[in-house]
Write a structure and sequence with these properties.
two-stranded antiparallel sheet; 7-stranded antiparallel β-sheet; 55% helix; 3 domains; 475 residues; alpha+beta; Yope Regulator, Chain: A; 19 helices
């Protein structure tokens, strides 16, 4: 307070009303804060840099979003189309991402939404709904990328690729309002925007005559962060390849696959790359799980080949794929706690032989695989997501330290755990999610600090045992 300002005494009733209003605001924003709120809130002042981990997830829809969605559906059924469109975009706008803008003028609703590096424009009136996004600009036409676009067009269900008068490759969707229900609009806009976001980096990287367009909203990362991330991409891949070469492929065929899957998921979640690197990691994931009849050795060989081609690219190519963007739609599938618990139950016995024979890196890779698989492929409930993130901080302490994070939960040199910091964060996560999950009560007494993989296994069993009954079900 400035020295010349005057203090104002408020009646107790007024103070009470102000505090209630502040509490109400905090509660409304609670679902968007999660880890950020705890990191920058009260208590000990740990350093938690503003670094993104993982892809945008819309697993938890707020009551506000649900109310807008119900209004959109009921209004559409009553043929109150403009009211339905308005509520539809309000539902998307309430996702806390600041990725939706819309306004009404000239008897139409005009909108703009952001998905990654792409911007989608469109309008809706009493006759039709239309949306489009510019993907890349073409200096000249080429048979190679035109064929690629034709093949991709065939895979689209709602939208289509086209070429405008300025040689911009666009993706479009339109529908008459009689066939533009909120369900169809959601699916169509998600397909259009996620396809545009994915294709721009891939096309621009492969074809010299194609260039990025309409992506000025992306936020470039600090150079130091890019360099740190790239150095760990190299470190992780090099150490994994070296370790694979040391192992007998006949004896450790499954262990090698765990190493590679852990590497893929770890890089995707911790680095959050876009473009070619993201596409390569997704391709590697699908290579492992494709029902193609290939042996584990054949699959691992294919994946190693893809990863080596990826890391052999110039460092600057990786830097170009490191940026932050808002998203309107999640690209991952929804999963519940029961699915995570089932996978923990199924995979943890696989660690036994490696632990007994002191192949601790292979045992740790299994824990990393379980955590990374769910963070890579699924939208988990917030507590699960936060606990798996904490496990990554413990498994990869050097990376988080290089990015400037505190506290340091595990020291790889001394092999010592900061038990107090680990338990505090476990309990902090539970407290932050208590309102939504009232029965959330992690049991830290069973955690084992013998070694890193043994701890990881006990940690995942603790997560498996969580009672994730939501507030609605609890009532």
């Amino acid at each position: 307070m400035c020295s010349h300002s005057k203090s104002v005494l408020l009646p107790k009733k007024a103070i009470h009303l102000v505090l209630c209003e502040l509490l109400s605001i905090c509660n409304k924003q609670h679902e968007y804060m999660g880890l950020f709120d705890r990191w920058f809130g009260g208590g000990k002042n740990f350093n938690r840099p503003d670094v993104q981990f993982g892809r945008y997830s819309d697993h938890y829809r707020t009551k506000e979003q649900e109310d807008f969605w119900k209004t959109a559906v009921t209004s559409y059924e009553k043929q109150e189309y403009m009211e339905s469109f308005r509520a539809f975009f309000q539902s998307l706008q309430a996702n806390g991402q600041d990725s939706i803008q819309f306004e009404e003028k000239d008897n139409a609703l005009h909108f703009e939404l952001l998905q990654g590096s792409k911007k989608v424009h469109g309008f809706a009136n009493n006759e039709k709904f239309a949306a489009h996004a510019k993907v890349v600009h073409a200096d000249r036409l080429n048979v190679g990328f035109m064929r690629r676009l034709l093949e991709h067009n065939h895979a689209l269900k709602y939208s289509r690729l086209s070429l405008d008068d300025d040689n911009n490759i666009c993706i479009k969707f339109d529908s008459y309002i009689i066939d533009a229900s909120p369900y169809k609009l959601y699916a169509a806009l998600k397909e259009l925007s996620t396809s545009a976001d994915k294709q721009d980096d891939l096309l621009a990287d492969e074809f010299d005559m194609l260039h990025q367009i309409d992506s000025r909203h992306i936020i470039d990362l600090p150079e130091e962060e890019k360099k740190t991330k790239y150095s760990y991409i190299k470190k992780w891949t090099d150490s994994t390849f070296t370790r694979i070469e040391e192992l007998d492929p006949n004896k450790f065929k499954i262990g090698i696959n765990y190493l590679l899957l852990n590497l893929i998921y770890k890089m995707d979640y911790l680095v959050v790359p876009e473009g070619v690197m993201m596409e390569t990691l997704e391709k590697c994931h699908h290579l492992f799980f494709a029902p193609d009849g290939k042996t584990p050795q054949e699959k691992s060989q294919s994946v190693v080949k893809e990863l080596k081609e990826m890391v052999e690219r110039p460092e600057q190519n990786f830097h170009k794929e490191m940026y932050r963007v808002p998203s309107t739609f999640s690209i991952t599938a929804q999963a519940e706690h029961a699915q995570l618990a089932a996978m923990i139950e199924a995979e943890m016995p696989s660690m036994d032989w490696y632990l007994q024979n002191e192949y601790f890196d292979l045992a740790a890779a299994i824990a990393g695989f379980v955590s990374g698989h769910f963070l890579f492929y699924f939208r988990l409930p917030q507590p699960d997501r936060e606990y798996l993130h904490l496990l990554f901080e413990i498994l990869e302490p050097e990376y988080f330290k290089a990015l400037g994070f505190e506290p340091h939960y595990y020291n790889k040199e001394t092999k010592e755990f900061d038990k107090s910091a680990i338990k505090n964060e476990i309990n902090n996560i539970a407290k932050a999610n208590k309102e939504r999950f009232p029965k959330l009560a992690p049991d830290t007494k069973e955690l084992k600090y013998t070694n890193l993989p043994e701890f990881a296994r006990s940690f995942l069993f603790m997560v498996k045992a969580l009672d994730m009954t939501s507030e609605k079900k609890a009532k």
